[in-house]
Specification:
single chain; alpha/beta; Arc Repressor Mutant, subunit A; Rossmann fold; 5-stranded parallel beta sheet; 5 strands; about 60% helix; globular
Amino acid sequence: VLGVICSFYDSFFEAEKKIADYIMEHKAQAVDMTVGELARASGTSDATVSRFCRRCGFKGFQSLKLALAREVLREEQDSRKVTNDIDRENLSQSLNNILANKVAELTETVRMMDIHSLEEILKKLEKARMVQLAAVGNTIPVALDGAFKFNQLGIPSVAGDIWETQAAYTFNLGPEDVVLLISNSGFSRRLNTLAQGAKENGSTLVLITNNPDSPLASICDHKIITATREKLLTEEFWFSRVTATAVIEILYLLLRAGKKDAMEHIRRHEEAISSDKNEI
């Protein structure tokens, strides 16, 4: 439940965000509440609570409560007491808290993957004449890492840290190419411009995002939804690069396993850089 709430948080209406905030801060209490009690506690209405549950992918409030109760029970049974606090005065507990939330992010990200869609994405990447990984802001390193990994496998790939250069490159792509966009919110105006250009040229669009209901998500042919729990650890809603990087790693490993000549490309690459690793 918490993973879904964090993933969809940006797409919630303000009233729905009040419910999300309350559940994240009082998950154990929310398990024992009625719809009306949660509505009053979060300063919303019964109808908003019901709509919120459906927006999160649950049939209703009872369905959400059952899932939340299982999460709370698992945490209570864990020998390590986990909270959402990060305190420099208690590094040991803080490390446990960070680890637990990051493991939950990765677990939820994998759980939300659509196997059929994932296989289609892998096929498109394998057959692509060129793959462009596009990002802005703090996800640029993820795009650069992805381009490096795909090139190792023999899949021609590019990524850049200047948006204007990325856009100029995109406009030269065609139907045989894939553009893989990385955006937390899916509301990036610059990436939207880039995606529209790629769409006009007939390129396949793949999106890695926290928000499946964003403008970018509506344009792209395929989506991989990532989970984030950063809001549980910080006061604000930040994008966790851990899950986006994990998705790139998953794609790399699956492509490596399925692409017949992948190991030969990796061997040539390793031989080319081996002299640089020799001791001086």
